[in-house]
Write a structure and sequence with these properties.
about 300 residues, TIM Barrel, eight-stranded parallel beta barrel
């Protein structure tokens, strides 16, 4: 699997990373997660991204591949008081959450800890960022990042405190391509694309049952990309290659519970998307998107 340097972090990351939300929220069985993550690592994936609030995700990852810790870069997020009595973004809770993530993930250091969709107002106070910086100084994390979109993401880039930005980027989520990516790239930040194929919201030919994908379904009905009429594998390939081909994007986070999916995903990344196809997708977005098509958190 292709590797790219994650900005100024110097981490040589695979272009596809594993997203741990699905296994946590759907209470996947430990044995199934072991097969899933082992197959991902064996296929060349070396990024695992999770969060404190993804239910059992951190524990499952630690149980399954903690013994292979040298084989992957480990990213998590903090900010939501999942399991703590304090409110979201409480400074003491944030520090406790980072320590708990280390225990759950069976590691003594995270490669990246990210503020989990923190508001611009909290970012401007600086206190929450300070908690991450102290964790870095203590050797608990190597790098710090922000995961989020829109004005908060713009501020996170401009403030200069973060090494990495994780944001929504896809054929149905391009607001930040012009407003955020260029400055992040100029500053040498690592860029992680979340929701990189817009949750494949088109795949069933009807509005998805998962409300999380409804916004993308609605947008795609208006965008009417011709390539989404092709077979699913080809359409997914084009969508993923579009995202990974945007300047500054280093890795894309995808989730699955199918252990065979990783080898399949590698075959879908058959080289960069030809510039005319990328230009066509960007032009269609600029023609159709309205000012309220914000990045989806």
């Amino acid at each position: 699997m292709e590797k790219r340097l994650l900005g100024k972090t110097g981490m040589n990351v695979s272009v596809l990373g594993f997203g741990g939300a699905e296994i946590g929220f759907e209470n996947a069985e430990p044995a199934a997660v072991h097969r899933l993550l082992s197959s991902a690592l064996d296929a060349g994936l070396n990024v695992i991204d999770t969060a404190e609030c993804y239910n059992t995700s951190e524990e499952l990852i630690g149980q399954s591949v903690g013994h292979r810790r040298k084989d992957y870069f480990l990213f998590s997020k903090c900010g939501h008081a999942y399991g703590f009595e304090q409110p979201d973004w409480d400074l003491g809770m944030l520090a406790q959450s980072i320590d708990r993530s280390l225990v759950r993930l069976r590691t003594d250091r995270l490669d990246l800890i990210q503020l989990h969709s923190c508001s611009e107002a909290f970012l401007k106070k600086g206190d929450v960022t300070g908690v991450l910086l102290r964790a870095k100084e203590a050797g608990k994390v190597r790098f710090i990042g922000y995961s989020g979109d829109n004005q908060a993401a713009q501020y996170a880039v401009a403030c200069g405190a973060f090494d990495v930005l994780q944001m929504s980027i896809s054929i149905a989520d391009q607001q930040g391509v012009d407003s955020i990516l260029p400055e992040a790239q100029r500053r040498g930040m690592g860029i992680i694309a979340k929701r990189p194929i817009a949750n494949a919201a088109w795949k069933e030919g009807r509005k998805p049952s998962n409300p999380y994908a409804h916004c993308y379904w609605d947008r795609l009905q208006k965008l009417q990309y011709d390539f989404l009429q092709r077979n699913l594998s080809e359409a997914v390939s084009l969508a993923m290659r579009f995202t990974l081909g945007l300047p500054g994007v280093h890795t894309a986070i995808v989730g699955t519970k199918n252990p065979d999916r990783w080898a399949e995903n590698v075959t879908l990344l058959s080289g960069p998307l030809p510039p005319p196809e990328t230009a066509s997708i960007r032009a269609r977005w600029k023609q159709v998107a309205t000012s309220d098509w914000y990045g989806q958190i």
